[in-house]
Design a protein that fits this description.
Structural class: alpha+beta
Shape: elongated
Strand content: 5-15%
CATH class of the largest domain: Alpha Beta
CATH architecture of the largest domain: 2-Layer Sandwich
Strand order of the largest sheet: 1-2-4-3
Number of domains: 2
Distance between the termini: 52 Å
Number of strands: 4
Number of helices: 7
Largest sheet: 4 strands, antiparallel
Helix content: 55-70%
Length: about 180
């Protein structure tokens, strides 16, 4: 008999979870069963089981961080694999596991996630025309021009300031090209 504690969330970002399921390890039939059951769920985009490692990657259509709703969606089919487990207990266990997993994440990941949500909202509001990669440099350019026009004394940057600004701008705007030449 298997225990509900044999399922844990080892990584969770909005729209993507990786579960560790002990009985899945070296069990291809269970992997196929999980993939079949979870792929048919509303809101689940893709399910990739790995019977070699005992992990299960789930990608959701909704990229929000509504952990409880996603846990509830997975609860019934996962509880069916662990007969003594009830769907409500499974949902609570998954939610607690997600929160424990998310608590130890680096601050930089949280900041990047926040900017990602802000960028998605900006892109949605502009109907896909603008995003933060365009708006942020435009905003800084506007502030620079405004400061230049309103200042009484205009200090000129040194030659090396221009050099480093040109180099960093080139690298940022051509990241793929720079990465290919490494």
């Amino acid at each position: 008999m298997q225990d509900i504690s044999e399922i844990s969330v080892i990584h969770a970002v909005p729209g993507r979870w990786r579960l560790k399921i002990a009985p899945l390890k070296n069990n291809p039939p269970l992997a196929q069963d999980l993939q079949t059951r979870l792929t048919t769920l509303d809101g689940v985009q893709e399910v990739l089981p790995n019977p070699l490692t005992g992990s299960l990657l789930i990608t959701f259509r909704d990229k929000s961080s509504d952990w409880a709703a996603q846990a509830n969606a997975l609860a019934n089919p996962l509880a069916a694999l662990f007969p003594p487990a009830k769907p409500k207990a499974m949902a609570e266990s998954l939610s607690a596991s997600v929160m424990a997993c998310r608590a130890g994440r680096p601050v930089s990941e949280g900041i990047a996630e926040s900017f990602g949500r802000l960028n998605a909202m900006t892109t949605g509001l502009s109907r896909g025309v603008l995003d933060l990669r365009v708006l942020l440099p435009l905003g800084l350019f506007y502030l620079g021009v405004r400061s230049f026009l309103t200042s009484k004394k205009v200090p000129l940057p040194s030659w090396y300031d221009y050099f480093w600004f040109a180099l960093s701008t080139f690298i940022m705007l051509n990241r793929r090209l720079v990465d290919q030449n490494k």
